[in-house]
Amino acid sequence: MIDPRLRLLVAVSEHGTVTAAAEALFRSPSGVSRQLKDLAAELDVDLLERHGRRVRLTPAGQRLVTHARRLHAQWEAALSDTTAAARQLCGPLSLGGSPRRSRRSSLRSRSG
Q: Residue 8: inside a domain, yes or no?
């Protein structure tokens, strides 16, 4: 599925600090920071620049956030579409039967 660290990066871009993003996601700031450092190392790019207590996305970080938002939107659309498809009737429905007398009517004809 989609790498959960992307959600962390989007939150940092929206909240401006790792601490605020961590609070919004009910995570620890140190955990968020570690995961974003791991993501940056895995991609071999700098994603964030420090500016005092705040952080700014690097150009690479901005591009990744743009892709992360698109991925999230596509994932939500895929889930919605899949759920809708599962709820639709699929294919034709044919019902058939043979004329059959009920048990009561057959008992009446035998006893009468």
A: yes
DSSP state of 50: E
Query: Based on the structure, what is the number of domains in the chain?
Result: 1
Round to whole Å and give the CA distance between 15 and 55.
10
Q: For residue range 7-37, list pLDDT tens digits in order.
A: 999 999 999 999 999 999 999 999 999 999 9
Q: pLDDT tens for residues 52-74?
A: 888 999 999 999 999 999 999 99
Which amino acid does the sequence have at 53? R
Looking at the chain, the number of H-run helices and the number of E-run strands are 5, 2
DSSP-derived letter for residue 41 is H
Residues 6+ apart with CB under 8 A from 88: none
Query: Taking the complete model, does pTM exceed 0.70, yes or no?
Result: yes
| CATH code for the domain in which residue 71 is found | 1.10.10.10
**67-86 burial: b if 16+ Cβ within 10 Å, else e:** ebeeeeeeeeeeeeeeeeee
The C-alpha atoms of residue 63 and residue 6 are separated, in whole angstroms, by: 12
